[in-house]
Specification:
The protein is of the alpha/beta class. Helix content is 33%, strand content 14%. It has a 5-stranded parallel sheet with strand order 5-4-3-10-9. It has a 3-stranded parallel sheet with strand order 6-7-8, covered by helices on one side. A two-stranded antiparallel ribbon has the order 1-2.
């Protein structure tokens, strides 16, 4: 028997029992500040019909980071609230400043959250327009400077503006979170070219935040090279949030795997799948 007879047609060397040996590298983890996470999907907690559904959907996303709106959630553990359905041993709580319309308001909210024991990692949102919910870039930069100086691990929600993302990175933010589309719109990534530029120049994680509508949107974000995706409405607003939660988990995993694998080049004309040389 020749040495090559133990190699199956797949080209993957076989184990003694005849099964192919699969050599895979350990999956790189998402690192934010000094912490690392196995899941690249971050999940929100708003808009669900019940706390129980919130709990079950979050579990099926596989997410490890759960974001809550500080101004809309009862943070006092002595009173029943959403926090009773989020296992602190299983999830990292990421308080956000949703509903804040000034740097001062956002800074004060983050300080309050830290005093309540949620930790120093925060999602910074400073809204500039009530109708579109687009962020106020200048106010976000102002708030980020103060919070970083005070030792917060800042994850800012921002427009898909490469310059704004670069400035936030220079300030010391632990990640940048450009929007894919307006919050809750479900439009998917409207400007993949800007997102790609943001990724190219980033030395911190790039996490797409807002606008994801379905699993293909999440996969596309990851295929572009984003480090993670944060979503809420796409799961909470689905006809079946539990099933959508599972779909989003798989989409993020598949998109990341495809990015790491490296897609083929796009070509204008056909290329034969099978070689044409040596044909009989």
């Amino acid at each position: 028997m020749s040495a090559s007879s133990n190699i199956p047609s797949t080209g993957v060397p076989a184990e003694p029992g005849g099964e192919p040996t699969r050599h895979t590298q350990p999956e790189p983890r998402l690192t934010i500040g000094e912490r690392s996470f196995g899941s690249r999907l971050l999940i929100g907690t708003g808009k669900y019909s019940s706390f129980e559904l919130t709990r079950d959907a979050i579990a099926d996303t596989g997410a490890e980071i759960v974001t809550v709106a500080i101004r809309r959630v009862e943070l006092d553990r002595s009173k029943k609230s959403l926090l009773d359905f989020i296992d602190p041993d299983r999830y990292v709580l990421l308080p956000n400043t949703a509903g804040c319309y000034s740097a001062e308001e956002a800074i004060r909210t983050c300080r309050l959250a830290r005093e309540m024991g949620t930790g120093s990692m925060v999602k910074l949102e400073v809204i500039g327009d009530e109708r579109t919910l687009f962020p106020d870039v200048a106010a976000t930069l102002e708030a980020a400077r103060v919070l970083v100086d005070e030792g917060f691990v800042v994850l800012p929600y921002i427009t898909d503006d490469p310059v704004a993302c670069l400035r936030l990175q220079e300030i010391g933010c632990a990640a940048v979170m450009p929007l894919a589309a307006p919050i809750g719109s479900g439009l998917g990534i409207r400007n993949p070219y800007n997102i790609s530029i943001i990724i190219e120049q980033a030395s911190v994680p790039v996490i797409v935040d807002a606008g994801v509508g379905t699993a293909s949107d999440a996969a596309y974000a990851m295929e572009l090279g984003c480090d993670g995706v944060l979503m809420n409405t796409a799961v909470a607003g689905a006809r079946d949030p539990i099933k959508m939660a599972r779909a989003m988990r798989l989409a993020v995993e598949a998109g990341r795997a495809a990015y790491e694998a490296g897609r083929i080049d796009r070509k204008r004309y056909a290329t034969a799948s099978s070689p044409i040389t040596g044909l009989i």
